[in-house]
Amino acid sequence: MKGWDALNRRITCCQRCPRLVAYCRQVAAEKRRSFAEWEYWGRPVPNFGDGAAKLLIVGLAPAAHGGNRTGRMFTGDRSGDWLYRALFKAGFANQATSIGPDDGLKLTGCAITAVCHCAPPNNKPLPQEIVNCRQWLVETIDVVKPRLLLALGQIAWRAVIAEARRREWHAGGIPKFGHGAKVQLAGGRWAIASYHPSQQNTFTGKLTESMLDAVFGEAKRLLKSEA
């Protein structure tokens, strides 16, 4: 898909946030001992998946030794293990594992983007860095034209709702974030929230596999009802 591929090439060349550009390169140079043999990606991570998807998943940012290492969203870290297991079970992925960019993983009817395309220190992008990256979310939605946006975490939820308001798909304030929260948008679209599958949530039991499966089950139901 020409527009999708062109957008991703532009994302990988982005230099809008000097702090993040420097951090990604630093991590790629220093590496983690367990990945010493890897040639790290070390730059903005492009979108991944089906460029004409009905479901667009919005995460926070690549992990320093996950997406920043592999060059693919949610690939090579524990969060990705949880996400792709759920996507496979829901029928959006052809396999449940995501190890590296050449592992054969493909998504159908689903695409993944992020609020911030560079790995931030301590997994916390600065407010201005989120603003700097907003244009990529805008363009991703323009290209994909999703019917359902699934936000992983509160920051992604705020970004999704803010963009929905800008497009006049949603009026009023930002609905309260919570796992399973959903908002009907104009034109038969939907926004759904989920806890992020970070280790902070999965190790503590705040997010369980059944909870994540339930969100994707609801997403499938809504997409089917709008078909």
Overall description:
With 227 residues, the protein is of the alpha/beta class. It has a single domain (2-225), classed as Uracil-DNA Glycosylase, subunit E, CATH 3.40.470. The protein has eight helices and six strands, in the order H-H-E-E-H-H-E-H-E-H-E-E-H-H. The chain has helices at 2-12, 18-30, 67-70, 78-90, 127-144, 154-166, 199-202, 209-225; strands at 48-49, 55-59, 110-114, 148-152, 182-185, 189-194. The chain has a six-stranded mixed β-sheet, sandwiched between helices. Strand 5 (182-185) and strand 6 (189-194) form a beta hairpin. Helix 4 (78-90) crosses helix 8 (209-225).
User: What is the end-to-end distance?
Assistant: 22 Å
Q: What is the radius of gyration computed over CA atoms, rounded to a whole number of angstroms? A: 16 Å
How would you sum up the major sheet?
6 strands, mixed
Order of helices and strands: HHEEHHEHEHEEHH
CATH superfamily grouping: Uracil-DNA glycosylase-like domain
The helix-and-strand class reads alpha/beta
Unreliable sequence segments: none
Number of strands: 6
Fraction in helix: 40-55%
Total domain units:
1
Q: Which geometry do the CA atoms define? A: globular
List keywords for this structure.
alpha/beta, Uracil-DNA Glycosylase, subunit E
Quick structural summary:
By secondary structure, the protein is an alpha/beta fold. The protein contains eight helices and six strands, in the order H-H-E-E-H-H-E-H-E-H-E-E-H-H. Helix 1 runs antiparallel to helix 5 (127-144).
